[in-house]
Amino acid sequence: MIDKIKCRKRIGCDIHKQLIELLKYAQEHETELPERILENEYKEVKQNKENYPDWYLGLVGFCASFGAKYFGGYARDSKDDNSGKWSAGAIRNLKKQISNIKDVKFINLNFQSLPLDKIKNYVIYCDIPYRGTTKYATDSFPYEEFYEWVKVASVNNTVLISEYSMPDDFTCIWQKETKTLLDSNKSKADKNNIRIEKLFTYIK
């Protein structure tokens, strides 16, 4: 999302260290990114993470995994496909975004660590793990604490949250029907895996 935002100052924060390191590396080393990740490389990196830099763990873990879930399983386009086609597409998309994120300051931290007393007149976009799904995160997310944090952050800023649903004191300001690729978001009655993506803000 941050590559679509047009403003003078942009800061991207995420708790996932390897994701942040990948984006920081891509800003300066676009030509050094590989074209694709083959399955044998994926398995080698997954089993020996201590041997690789964080940016490369981010590249392999996200760009070569099904649904971009960090090391959530090697992505293939068909049962016997070991061409790295999926990862090649993901890496191409990353490269297309680089020119639009050159001036973004990327920081590895969680929302609790943001100094709200120093953040005023910002637009804060939050892409949290959707409640009730595994999405990209495997650890439990402190939803109730996050809701209270948004209320405080909204005093001096505009805070926007992507989610399927939020508590009653939040309002939906935008929504769109989408199809998700993650099986963890799928119910047995949902054959087409359709979801309504929504954007919420706090009702002050």
What labels describe this entry?
204 residues; alpha/beta; 2 domains; four-stranded mixed sheet; two-stranded parallel ribbon; 27% helix; globular; SAM-dependent_MTases_sf; DNA adenine methylase
Can you walk me through this structure?
The protein is of the alpha/beta class and 204 residues long. The chain has 2 domains: 16-103, no CATH class; 110-202, no CATH class. It is built from 5 helices and 6 strands. The strands form 2 sheets. The chain has a 4-stranded mixed beta sheet with strand order 3-4-6-5, with helices on one face. The longest helix has 14 residues, at 85-98. The model is unreliable at 183-188 (pLDDT under 50). It holds the Pfam family MethyltransfD12. One of its GO terms (molecular function) is site-specific DNA-methyltransferase (adenine-specific) activity. Keywords: Methyltransferase, S-adenosyl-L-methionine, Transferase.
Q: What is the β-strand count?
A: 6
Strand order of the largest sheet: 3-4-6-5
Global shape: globular
Order of helices and strands: EHHHHEEHEEE
Mean pLDDT: 90
Extract low-pLDDT stretches. Answer: 183-188
What structural class is derived from the secondary structure elements?
alpha/beta
- Our measurement of the CA-to-CA distance between the termini, rounded to an integer number of angstroms, reads 25 Å
Radius of gyration: 18 Å
Number of helices: 5
Helix content: 25-40%
Number of discrete domains: 2
Strand count, sense and closure of the main sheet? Answer: 4 strands, mixed
Strand fraction: 15-25%
